Amino acid sequence: MITVAPTGAEIEKSTVPALPVTLDELVTTAEQCAAAGAAVIHVHVRDGGARPTLDLGRLRETVQALRESTDLVVQVSTGGAVTDPEDRRLAVLECGPDAASLTCGTLNFGDDVFVNRWPFIVELHRRMREREVVPEFEIFDLGHAAALHRLLDTEGPPWGGRVHADVVCGVPGGLPGTARAVLAAVAALPDGATWSATGLGRASLPVLFTALGAGGHVRVGMEDTVTFAVGVPVQDNAQLVVRAADAARLAQRPAMDIESARAMLGVKDRRRDRGLGDG
Ligand code: KMH
Ligand code: ZN
C-alpha cells in the first residue's frame, strides 16, 4: 500500500514552488498519485498565504473535494504544525475524514518540540473511535511503540479493530533513517499490526527499500522528500509515487489497489457522502 503525503506543514511554498498548497493543486496531485498507484492520501492544508492551517472549513472542503475526485482513503493529519494547540488538533476530526494520524508520543523535531502528551493521545483515540475514524499510529521513536501498547491495553482497539502504524524515520530527534531503526520499531509493534514506513530526506530510499524487503507498506511524498536525487529537486508528488510503485514492482510486491487498502485498514465507506447518488 502506497500512501502519499503531498504537502505537510514544514516545507515553504516559496522555497519549493511544486508543493501543492491550494485546493486545486491538491486535487490534481491526488488524481495523479491515485493513477500512479497511491491508495491513501495524508492531508495537511494551507491557508491563502500557503501557511499551514487547521481551519475546519478548509479541511471539510478539502476532504469533500478529494472524495469527489478520487477513491483514495482520505487521512487527515492531527499532527498539524508543531505550533498548533491541542484543541485545534482535536477539532480536525470534525471534518469527516476516513482516517487520521495519531502520533504516539513527544519528540524533539529539529529545533522544535512536537508535543503529544499522554492525555491528548488518549483523547484523540477516544474521539476517533466515537467518530468512526481509523487511526494511523505515527511512530517517530521506539518509545512511541511502547506507548501504542499502553494505549491499546488501557483504551481498547480503534474503530474498525485494525491496528495500522507508520514508522517515521529521519526527523532530527526521532528514529534515524536506517534499516536497523525501521526493523527495531516494527519489532516493537503490537502483534498483528500492519505498518508502513516513511523516510525523510536522504532517509527516503533506505526506508523505502527496507519496508519493501520486510513486508511493510510505504509512505512517500513532498511532506517528507523534496530532493529526488543529489542536486535534483522533486518534480511533483506523482514522481515519488511512481518511483515507489516501480520499486514495489521490482520487489514483486506491486502496489495495493485502493479497494484492498480500504479493506485492510477497515475504513468506513463514506463515498456515498460525495452526493453522486451511486450508493
Ligand atoms: N508536522 C509535524 C509536526 C502528522 O501529520 O500527524 C507532524 C506531522 C505528523 O506531520
Ligand atoms: Zn503529516
Give an overview of the whole structure.
The chain has helices spanning 23-36, 56-69, 86-91, 118-130, 142-155, 179-187, 204-213, 237-250, 258-265; strands at residues 2-4, 40-43, 45-46, 52-53, 73-76, 99-103, 107-109, 112-114, 134-139, 164-169, 194-199, 217-220, 227-229, 232-233. The two termini are 25 Å apart. A hairpin with a 2-residue loop joins strand 7 and strand 8 (112-114). The chain is built from nine helices and 14 strands. Helix 1 (23-36) packs parallel to helix 2 and helix 1 runs parallel beside helix 8. Strands 1-2-5-6-9-10-11-12 form an eight-stranded parallel beta barrel, surrounded by eight helices. The protein has a two-stranded antiparallel ribbon with strand order 3-4. The longest helix is centred in the N-terminal third of the chain and has 14 residues, at 23-36. The chain is globular, with a radius of gyration of 17 Å. 37% of the residues lie in helices and 19% in strands. With 279 residues, it is of the alpha/beta class. The model has no long low-confidence stretch (mean pLDDT 97). The protein binds (5S)-5-amino-3-OXO-hexanoic acid and zinc ion (ZN). Residues 8-10, 77-79, 81-82, 101, 103, 109, 114, 138 line the site of (5S)-5-amino-3-OXO-hexanoic acid.
